[in-house]
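Lab notebook, bench 4. The sequencing result for the construct came back, and we need a structural model before the next group meeting so we can plan mutations. Quick request posted to the team channel:

Model the 3D structure of this chain.
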Amino acid sequence: MMAQKRKSLATGSCEGEGLCTVNMIDRFSNLPEGVIHHILSDFVVKDLARFCCVSKRWRELCLSSPSVNFCGFNTDEMADMACELRLKLVNTLDRFLLSRGDNEMKSFCLFWDGHSDEELDEPCFCVNENFRINTWIQNAVRCKVEKVHLAVAYFDFEGEPIAFPSCIFRSSSLRSLVVEMPHTVFKTPSFTFSSNLKRLDLRDIIIQDEGFFKWISCSCKSLKDISLTDCEIYNVTIESSSLEKFDFFNYMIFETCHINISGGKLEEINVNCYHSPSSAVLKIVAPNVKRLLLEGNVKNDLNLGELNCLEEAAILMEPIVDEFDKVYEVLSSLCSVKVLVLNEATIKAACKEERVQVQLDEVWYLQMKIGSFTDDLVPAVVCLLRGTPELCTLYIRYKPTSLVPKYNTSRFDIEYWKMQNLGFISQVEDVTIELSAGFNGIELARYILEHAENLEKMVIRYLAEQSNDIGKLKESKMNSNPMVTFEEYERSI
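Done. Here's the predicted structure in token form:
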């Protein structure tokens, strides 16, 4: 009895203080191996290294985990870490990979900040990190890795670009590759090898050889998604029968840059180019594209081809005064678009009073991102609304570029809006208007409230200084019985 009592007390103490480590380990170890590996997949290498010390069973599980994450290192700590400590860390990671052997690797994630001391005349021995990092990548390839995510700043002493390990492009198992490696050059892989890549995401890298994109066109027959962000690129020409999505985001592109994208399966294209030179060219041949984003300066030749399947588009360009023809041509090609987002500069450029209006008969959702509702903007907005007779949802969003309100914002009253005979007014059901300075926006809101016979919902957001005018707007005689909400908001850039 005394022995049983001691056992009972011991068990109670263990449960109360959370000391039943052995039982917890047994419960974890008895789970199916696939479930354990799924749990371990989110662990960084520091945690896996700790678990390796718990027991032989845990060590086997951690070393056979198909997910290896060399992440979780504090960036500031690594920047201040002495060379000796960095060397110990690198050696530890080497040993971890060596202990894994040839265990299959589903995913490999590496986030690493290189070390450099600018005060030194010669590189410290941390320069060897570059070789070790390349060895880790080679190890992942050898272990038949499927997903690779690399965010690496190599050690940079001489200032010369560093070649990206080409072995990764010879991997038949690789399906997804994300690379963010400044000062790193991508060279053209061998055309004799057919890649099974499905996703390629490159950020802040250098591609000087046009052959790299030719390799994508010829050797990546399974590629569905490609994204290029802030890369040093001169020309992009991709003709792909498998590509479904293409993203190009660059704030600075080069003088002779040509972007040519062609693909019968392309459904989504996002191109964002600011500060593009006058000689840059954008050509898109994607007859089945459904979603399109064009954002940035229009100082180039645009050739969008046929867009008969287009459903959603955001045209947020910043054309200069004499280039409205290009914007007008772009909007005129959106004959089938149903959801459309435009910014103020695009509206002004495409909808000049002396031009024939853009006809967008299929649009049922329209969002306009504008600053103050100035007098020179109102005719362009009217021209645009005339071309959207089937509009059901209208969102006029306030997107200012300055805290200083613009003047000349009160010329057009409700009588002006009545005279325009806008076809959408009988169709529109849902309206949101964010008001800015002046009365032009308020008068448009009044016109919609009083004449939209099918209006079901309207949200009017206003600035604090417009409170008195909003009080009068609330007294409008509505043509229907919509749910109307008034919300005060703060001015912002």
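Residues 1-24 have pLDDT under 50 and may be disordered.
Will bring this to the meeting.
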